[in-house]
Known about the structure:
It is a single chain. Helices cover 62% and strands 0% of the residues. It is mainly alpha-helical.
Amino acid sequence: xxxxxxxxxxxxxxxxxxxxxxxxxxxxxxxxxxxxxxxxxxxxxxxxxxxxxxxxxxxxxxxxxxxxxxxxxxxxxxxxxxxxxxxxxxxxxxxxxxxxxxxxxxxxxxxxxxxxxxxxxxxxxxxxxxxxxxxxxxxxxxxxxxxxxxxxxxxxxxxxxxxxxxxxxxxxxxxxxxxxxxxxxxxxxxxxxxxxxxxxxxxxxxxxxxxxxxxxxxxxxxxxxxxxxxxxxxxxxxxxxxxxxxxxxxxxxxxxxxxxxxxxxxxxxxxxxxxxxxxxxxxxxxxxxxxxxxxxxxxxxxxxxxxxxxxxxxxxxxxxxxxxxxxxxxxxxxxxxxxxxxxxxxxxxxxxxxxxxxxxxxxxxxxxxxxxxxxxxxxxxxxxxxxxxxxxxxxxxxxxxxxxxxxxxxxxxxxxxxxxxxxxxxxxxxxxxxxxxxxx
Length: 440
C-alpha cells in the first residue's frame, strides 16, 4: 500500500470511529435519562443470562431452522471481524495480510473457516430476504413497520450479502495474484482458500494490473462498507447486536408474572388499615408522581430495553390484543419509546439542555387506547429473544393515566369502586359473598 493510501485510510478510520463513539455517547446519555434502578444483584446468574440469551440465543431455538440461520449471521458478524482486524491493521501499517507469515498453516485454516461462515451468512441473508419480501410473514408486514423500519432490515441484509461477496472476491483475486507472483503479492503464499478459489475461472482472464485493481477495489469497498455499517448501526434496529449483551446481563431475575407494587400505594393501604402508623405530617406521605408520563419517569432499564429491541415482532405475534385487531403492538411500544428518546436528544443538542417541547411519551407517541388494550398476560415478555419487557412501560404509563389523570373507561371505574367498597370486582356486599351456594 502506498503512503498516500495509508494516510487516507487512517483519516477515514479515525472519522468513522469518532462518529460511532459520538453516537454511542448520545445513546448512553439517553438511557441514563431514566430513573436509577439497581440491577447489580446475583452476578453469577446474570452472566449465565449473557451466555444463554445473548451469546447462545436460547430463546431463538424454539424454531430451530430460523435459529440456525440467525446464529450463522450472528456468528459470521462476530467471528469474521477477526479478518476485519487484519484488514484494519494492513491499512494502518501499509502491510498485506499481516498475520499470514506469523501464523503459517494455521492462517489457511482460519481463513477457510471464515469463508465457510461467509457462505453461511450469504445463504442465511438470502433466506431472510425471502421470508420478508416473498413469503411476507405477517409480523414483517404489519403497519407498525411502515416506512423506514421495514426498509431497515432489507438494507442490512443486502449490505451483509455485498460484504460477504466482496470478502470472497478479495480472497480469490489475492490468491490468484500470489500464484502469478505479481508485484508485492509475490512475497506471500497463503495457498488457495476453500470457497474463493472457485472464483478463479471467473477472474483468470483478467490481466495482472486489472486483477490487482479488482483486489484493491474489493479491499477498499469491504473496509469502507464495514465503517459505513458501524455508523449505520446506532440508527438501526441492529444495534441489538451490541446491546443484547448488557440487556441480558441486566435481566429481570424475579418471576415473570410478578408485578411490582407501588410503594406509595402500599403505604396508603397500610395507613388506612393501621392509622396509628401514619406520620403526623402530611408532607411525609406526599409523592412526586404515580406511574410515568415521559421517558424521564421510566427507569434506565426500560430505556435500555427500547434501544435493544430487535423489531422482530415476536412479542406482537404472541400478543392477544394485537392478534384480535386491537391498536396495541408491544413492538410499537418499544419503537415509540426509542423515538421519543431520539427526539429528546435532538432537543438537548439544540438547546444545550432539555427544553419543554409540549410533548410526552404518553398521548403523543403512545395512546391511551393502546395501553388499555393490554391484558397483562406476559406473552410479550415470554417471547422476546433478548429479555425485553414492554409490559413494564405499559404498566407505568397506565398507572399515570389512571392515577394521575383519572382517565379510565367507565367499566374500569365501576370495578375500582367495587374493589374499594366491597373488596371484590362485583357489586355485592362482603357479607353476601357466599350466598351463591345456597339453595333457591
